[in-house]
Structure formats: C-alpha cells, structure tokens
Design a protein that fits this description.
Length: about 250
Amino acid sequence: MERIFERSKSYLTVAIAETLAGDGAKVAEDFVWDHSLRVLDLAQRICHEHQVDVESETAALTAAAMYHDAAWIALLREGTIPPAKLLSRPSDVGMRKISANVLRQEAADVMDRRDLELACRYIVELAATRHESPVMQALADAENLEEIGLIGVIRQVRQGLLSGKSARRVLEGWHRQQEYHYWESRIGAGLNYDVSRRLARNRLDRMGVFFDLLQQEVELEDLKEICSRELARSENKLFMPELRQKE
C-alpha cells in the first residue's frame, strides 16, 4: 500500500504558482489529496465499526479512496480548470470514469490486476445511489460524509464565493435546505451504516451552530447585543449618582 500512497500523493498534490505573492513562488495544491485521505480513513473506520471484512479488498479500497476524485487533478494539470474549481460540484459518472482511468495509468505496475480493476469499479460505482458490496457502501458513506459538517461548510462557502454569492445568499441557501429537510433526507436515504448516520447527525448539529453564528454577523445581531449592554451600563452610570444624592 505504501507505493499506492506515494503514487497518489505525487499525482494529487500539484505545485501551482502563488499569484497573490507575485514572486513566482510555488505552493502545493493538496485540497484533493487531503480530502482523499479522510475518505479512506472514514471508510476503513466504518468497516471496522460494523465488522465488515475488508482483508481481501484492502488494496482495492485504498486505491479507490485515494483516486476517486483524481479527475479533478487531471483537469487541473491539463489547464481545463483553475485550482479554485477543484471539487466545486459533485462528480458525475463521466468524472468517475476519468478518475478510474487515471488510476489504471498510475497503478498498473504496482497493483495486482484483480485489485486494480476492483478499485476502478468502486470508483465508477460511486456515481450510483445504491450499492450492494458492504465495502462499497462504506466508501460511499465516507464520500457523502465529506459534505456534512464543518468540512462540508467550507466546501459550501467556497462554492458560494466562486459563484459570486454574498454571505447572506449562502445563509439563505442553508435556510432553504432546512426548510425542505434536505440534510435529513440525505442522511436517511444516502447513508448505509448506523455509525455513518450518527456521525452525520452530530456534524449537522455543528453546521447549525456555524450558520447561527454567521446569521448573527450578517444581521449585526452581535453588534446589537454589545450596544445594548453598553447602553445599559451607560444608563446605570447616569442613574447611580442620583441614588447616592438621595441617600
């Protein structure tokens, strides 16, 4: 597995020009690499929690998790998209097929052919909504969990900024999701394992806290709270001398 990690890190971590610095410096673009590592870790932990036997599929699961979004890097490398567009929308079956082809090219000499083809199949099947293999179900849960919680919030805000949305419009999008019970439906119908659903609900609670705090700032409720306290203290200071005089 070490060779798969080395290959995937080399492919998924891209050096790009740091244009803001204006000095031609290079920085590592590791957004997809970081995401892929979490997906693998999540999938493995879900399998462990539910006693899913992955021993014979460890190589396939590892390769599939590390390369499932490699299509985005392929587009970045060929100049089709800028770094800011990485993971800016859900990957459809076309993107999954590109990712599988990247894996075939990258790992043909370091993976058993059966494991390689199974990993490619897992990647393509991520585009589906239903999965029969317990390992595939864990991988799909891990991918979906990346959209829920504060990591999911980062992606929502990032996509909103790329689309030119204001903080208020991002907040309105969250309220619409709440109104239509979007996330509850995703959790109920889109996740396969109990531990995944429990984790998703915990993460959803944290999303709610974030957007509550964002609303306070958008509506200046935090300022109003401070101003009301300051006003109360000011009125108290004005009133206290009168009391002392009466004493």
